[in-house]
Here is the input.
Amino acid sequence: MTARLPVTRALAALVEHTTGRPCGIGELPCVQGKSGWEPAAAPYTVLDSLPAEFSGPPLWDWHADASWSYQVTSVGERGDQVEWLADRVRAGVVGRTDGHWTHDLLIPEVRVIDRELTYDAGGEPSVSAAGAIVSYVQRVTITVTPA
Here is the structure.
């Protein structure tokens, strides 16, 4: 079966590349600052792993396909900021041009056979109790097969 970590890292790199903003894996992203690594300033994204689905041969067989699900949370200080970031995430992960993915998702030793946006907050950002942080949730599923 395909390992998940290379898929996670490749997806985080794609989100970071297409948004132009930092993407943390399961936590607030850090950036290199004057005094070392520091928390990234908003806006940024956080990529979290969700439960997965499997099809094909038994899981011990390296020929099994895997569908890895993720939540991408866009975090910012205003609603328009997180919607802008979510638009860039959507276009980067599932955007198509001339029948092909607009951006390649290259993962060693596997072939991406499907990308699906399974949930989008639909313009209803969540505001924290303090009102200083706004988030926008999207969920995607990346299906891979061994190369």
In short: The first strand starts at residue 23 and ends at 25. Strands lie at 23-25, 30-33, 36-39, 44-55, 65-76, 96-97, 100-101, 110-120, 126-127, 134-146.
